[in-house]
Design brief:
alpha/beta; TIM Barrel; 3-stranded antiparallel beta sheet; 17 helices; binds iron/sulfur cluster
Length: 390
C-alpha cells in the first residue's frame, strides 16, 4: 500500500506556559514532564520502526504546544534517534516557535540541528490585541524574533498572524503586514479568529464580556489581506496561507493531497489510505502506556467512500489547485452550480480547474457541503476516482 510512497511525520510537543484565550489545544505547563515525555516519544518511534525504517520520510513537522520551549538536551536526544533512521532524508523540517523562546543562540542551535523551516506564532504586533488573545509575548519580542530569524538564513520560514480580532482595525492589520513584508518573510499563515468551545474567549462570550466581530468585518479584513499580500509579492495557495515563490509548505501539501502521514505524541493523528487513527490527548495516559511498551491509547476509523470524497473536496478545493473542470462537467447538477458560483465571481476557471476567488474562499465550506449533498450515494466513487489521479 505504501510502495513508492513517502511519509509526512508530525511530532507533537504538548507543552505551553499558559493557555492563549482562543486556543482549545491540549497542553500542560508542567516542565517536569518534558523529559519523561521525550522518553515516551522515543519509545513510540521504536514501535513504528517497522514502518519508519522502510518508508522514506519526506517532511517532518514539530508542532504544539510550544516546541520551541523544549530544552536543547531533549532536542538532541529526539533528533539523534530520528536522524539515525535509514529513511530520514527530509526535504523540509518545520519547527513551531513562539517569540519569547527565540534568541540568536537558539536559532543557531535549531539550524545546526537540521531544522529547515521555522514557523513563528506572532498573531499580532499590537499590545492591545495580544492582550485580548492572551498571548505570552510582547510586540517587542515578536519584532526582535522576526529580525533575528531574518538574519539566520533558514531555507524557509513563516509567521502566523490573526485577523478578525475584536478591536482590530484595518490599519492594525496593515501595520502587521508592512512590518512582516519589510523582512521579506517567505511564508505567511493568516487565520481568522474563531471561537472554539472550552476557550477563555468562548466563556467570556457566554457572559457577554466578549463580542466576536460581525461577518462583514471578517470579510473586509480577509479581502484586504488577500489584496495587500498579493501586492507585496505573496501568492495565495490555501484559504489561510500565502507564500513567496518556492516557499509553500511541503508538509501541509501532504495533508491537503491526502498523502500518508504519521503523527506521534498525544492527540496526534495518522493516516494511511484509507485508515485514520489518533492518539488519546491525555499526556499521563500516553506516557504510562509507553512505559509499558504499549501503543498509546487511541481511536481510529476506516474512511468510507463518502468520507474520502468529502475530505478530498474539503482539502483540495480550498487550495490553489481547485477542482478539475473536466470532472465537474460530468455531473450536470454540480456543473450548473459551479457556473452559478462563477457568475457570482466566487469561483474562477483557470488552467482547466475551477478555483476559489478571494470572495469564494470565504464560502468554501458551505460550497463543499452543497456539492456533497447533491449526490450522496453515486458521487463518492466517481469523485474519488477522478481526484485520486491528481
Ligand atoms: S495557541 Fe499555541 S502557545 Fe497558545 S495555548 Fe495554544 S498551542 Fe499553546
Amino acid at each position: 500500500m505504501l510502495e513508492g510512497r513517502s511519509l509526512a511525520l508530525y511530532i507533537h510537543i504538548p507543552f505551553c506556559r499558559k493557555g492563549c484565550h482562543y486556543c482549545d489545544f491540549y497542553f500542560t505547563p508542567r516542565q517536569s514532564l518534558m523529559e519523561p515525555y521525550v522518553e515516551a516519544l522515543l519509545k513510540e518511534i521504536e514501535l513504528y520502526i517497522p514502518l519508519l525504517s522502510i518508508v522514506p520520510i519526506k517532511t517532518v513537522f514539530f508542532g504544539g504546544g510550544t516546541p520551541s520551549w523544549l530544552p536543547e538536551a531533549l532536542w538532541e536526544r529526539l533528533w539523534n534517534r530520528l536522524s539515525s533512521l535509514p529513511t530520514f532524508h527530509p526535504v523540509e523540517v518545520t519547527l513551531e516557535a513562539n517569540p519569547e523562546d527565540i534568541t540568536l543562540d537558539r536559532l543557531r542551535f535549531w539550524k545546526d540541528l537540521g531544522i529547515t523551516r521555522l514557523s513563528i506564532g506572532i498573531q499580532s504586533l499590537s499590545p492591545r490585541l495580544l492582550n485580548t488573545l492572551g498571548r505570552w509575548h510582547t510586540p517587542q519580542q515578536a519584532e526582535q524574533a522576526i529580525q533575528w530569524t531574518a538574519q539566520m538564513d533558514f531555507p524557509s520560514w513563516s509567521v502566523d498572524l490573526m485577523f478578525a480580532i475584536p478591536g482590530q482595525s484595518i490599519e492594525d492589520v496593515k501595520r502587521d503586514i508592512d512590518f512582516i513584508s519589510s523582512y521579506a518573510v517567505p511564508h505567511i499563515s493568516f487565520y481568522g479568529l474563531t471561537l472554539e468551545e472550552r476557550t477563555v474567549l468562548y466563556k467570556k462570550k457566554l457572559r457577554a464580556k466578549f463580542i466576536p466581530v460581525e461577518d462583514e468585518v471578517y470579510e473586509e479584513a480577509y479581502l484586504f489581506i488577500y489584496d495587500v499580500l498579493l501586492e507585496n509579492g505573496y501568492t495565495w495557495y490555501e484559504i489561510s496561507n500565502w507564500a513567496r515563490p518556492n516557499h509553500e509548505s511541503i508538509h501541509n501539501w501532504s495533508y491537503w493531497l491526502r498523502e500518508p502521514y504519521i503523527g506521534l505524541g498525544p492527540s496526534a493523528h495518522s493516516y494511511i489510505p484509507e485508515q485514520r487513527w489518533w492518539n488519546e490527548k491525555n499526556l499521563k495516559a500516553y506516557i504510562e502506556a509507553l512505559e509499558r511498551a504499549d501503543l498509546p491509547p487511541r481511536g481510529g476509523e476506516q474512511l468510507s467512500p463518502t468520507q474520502q470524497a468529502y475530505e478530498l473536496w474539503l482539502t483540495r478545493f480550498r487550495t490553489r489547485l481547485g477542482i478539475d473542470k473536466a470532472w465537474v462537467e460530468k455531473e450536470e447538477k454540480i456543473f450548473a452550480q459551479f457556473l452559478r458560483w462563477q457568475a457570482f465571481g466566487w469561483v474562477e476557471e483557470r488552467e482547466g480547474s475551477f478555483r476559489l476567488s478571494a470572495r469564494g474562499a470565504l464560502l468554501a465550506d458551505s460550497f463543499v457541503r452543497q456539492i456533497i449533498s447533491y449526490s450522496p450515494v453515486c458521487l463518492p466513487s466517481r469523485l474519488v476516482h477522478s481526484l485520486g489521479e491528481v
